[in-house]
Amino acid sequence: MQPNTRIKKWMREHQDEAITLLQQMVQCDSTQGNEKKVQQIVADKLSAMGFDIEVWEIGGNDLLNHPYFYSPRHSFQGSPNVAGRLKGKGNGKSILLNGHVDVVPEGDLKQWSYPPYSGHIIDGRLYGRGATDMKGGNVSLLYALEALHALQIHLKGDVVFHSVVEEESGGAGTLAAILKGYTADAAIIPEPSHMKIFPIQQGSKWFRLHIKGRAAHGGTRYHGVSAIEKSTMVLSHIVALEEERNKRITEPLFQHIPIPVPINIGKIQGGDWPSSVADLVIMEGRLGVMPGETVEQAEEELENWMAGLAEKDEWFQEHPVEVEWFGARWLPGSIDSHHPLLDLLKAQYEEVLKKPPKVEAAPWGTDGGLLSQAANIPVIVFGPGTTELAHYPNESIDIEHVIEAAEIMAGTLVKWCEVAD
Amino acid sequence: MQPNTRIKKWMREHQDEAITLLQQMVQCDSTQGNEKKVQQIVADKLSAMGFDIEVWEIGGNDLLNHPYFYSPRHSFQGSPNVAGRLKGKGNGKSILLNGHVDVVPEGDLKQWSYPPYSGHIIDGRLYGRGATDMKGGNVSLLYALEALHALQIHLKGDVVFHSVVEEESGGAGTLAAILKGYTADAAIIPEPSHMKIFPIQQGSKWFRLHIKGRAAHGGTRYHGVSAIEKSTMVLSHIVALEEERNKRITEPLFQHIPIPVPINIGKIQGGDWPSSVADLVIMEGRLGVMPGETVEQAEEELENWMAGLAEKDEWFQEHPVEVEWFGARWLPGSIDSHHPLLDLLKAQYEEVLKKPPKVEAAPWGTDGGLLSQAANIPVIVFGPGTTELAHYPNESIDIEHVIEAAEIMAGTLVKWCEVAD
Question: Which long-range contacts (CB under 8 A, 24 or more apart) does A36-42 make?
């Protein structure tokens, strides 16, 4: 039997094990600072399959002083990283498999139909915080490796595994793993792409705008300048910048996306009294960073653009909008459109699912940007979860997709790393 | 010597005492819930002048169930009301003097040149939150009474004093004082009219708009509907209503006012994550109520107008903007244009300042509306502060105006309540 045929057969016979593993992982609350328990499960799995692993709490000057280090945390206690390497037999290309175990907070519990760490299974879907983002993807990776291990399919190239913390707040876990030397010739990250293949991921950076007004009593509002009114002008100015930036995009993978690299204003707050004219509005948003530009270039363009408000309204000449950069940043990531790993993954997809894959540009950033930019590793995002369910109450994943993705991954590893005699 | 001559002389000799009193009152932070300290100063002053006073935390069923009761608060702890009566010798008309001690929050501290509760005096102006709105006016009243007391000028009619809380959020303090029987034949409120006489005051009502969107990830913002974007449409729709309403005003007292009865949006808040599409924006504002219309009529017009958004954008057909009425409402207030108190006040103004007074419609509501409508007391607004500075950073008052207003008040009391033999 061909390796792929054996893999398929083995996977279908053992799929309950994969489901149980996913259930166990989802049942671990692995919000920031609480990743230890789930990491132990991953570490045990990797060890059992012959990986040389390291489990460590990230930190140290190399990491903290790295130009790509971003984190709201000062200490990473309670958040161990896991990385490991399965040595190949030699003369093969290596692969890096990267997944994060940190999950975003569960939000309003009243909006959940089941407790968020229950791992309930209903109608083929497994429910819980992190099911789709991205423990389902992690299980696809582990199940692919499990199949190769069980079937004693030995590869020529090394398999490197990152089970990282801190993806949701800036990527310090992946950066720490890179700095420890856990790198490879190419990488796959099974973030929730809904089984689409994303060879390009946009980066992003958060910003805060301070829009000034002049206070007055609401009954004589004509004596004041409303920061709320001015903020509508700022908003349309930002939409114009978004248009301007997106016009420049020629990459065909973006062509079916209405706004390839959006600028999103997600939060607004201003004024402190209904009958006063607001003298300050704060808007917070996310600037999409285009593949091919640096975060710094994107930042500079937004800052210059905001200065241009002074030409539209003289209020802004003396009261310029202040731009503040804060919080997380995700670097854009990519793989060459003719890269052999991309071709292999597409072919495996078609072999397993009997239809061509959808290949698109990712609407969000992942730790793949760090792999591309800090370690020069080409990276593809491909995973079984669904973006639309990530970060929401009642997050869930289609179990069938987890198994399908595992089968596609295993076949890809066999082709990319090659089977040793 | 005539009473007015003695009053003028006494006031000029003792004006440092009035300035010190104002300074002390401004140095008390009397934002909502913190009015106790400043009220103690007023209560002590009134007691020393022979007033029978009451100091009490407002509340009780009579107040809370009154149709004119409006407040965002459930408890008034920390906010005592002060009211008192100086019995006249009999057979005279009584006067009610009303001022509030609550002040609006200080806003953005960076916009203040001095700390907001400093009471600094520079070039004849006293600076601080509440200086103009309306502790300066309160001091004019107290200084007028102080002069009569010091000069042993006894009046025939009673002088009733309200030093109230909650004016900035609905008038519960004045209503509580009325319900305790502190009423009179006519009233003067020294709100910041900039030495103009306001026989008419517009009312107002607070509202909250709930503007809905649909959440999505910021990187795929085109899958969502931004409540922040929709709120800009709501804002311009409200400006159109303001225009529509103001076109209807014919009252000549409004003719020099740029927007006679404004609608102000003072507060905005929406979204909870920079890289999510906001699914809800809350805007809070103040609807000006025209003299001659009821608050209910104005409310109905705004509600119907907001329903009209559905014609401008079909999103609003299924997601109508919810209008909520909350917090404060100020009733429009007025005095008959031929009322004898109005004539007396105008004459005193001319006698003291040697020029005719400016008589206009007030650009805002005061507790005068409650006096007019809940207690049927004709009311005039006349005070030394400046509307343009109320609720602003660097709020201040011209000290000379405080003394001039006190002199005009004292003379008016002498004429209205009449001097006893």
Answer: A36/A78, A36/A79, A36/A80, A38/A101, A38/A135, A39/A80, A39/A81, A39/A82, A39/A101, A39/A163, A39/A165, A42/A82, A42/A101, A42/A138, A42/A142, A42/A163
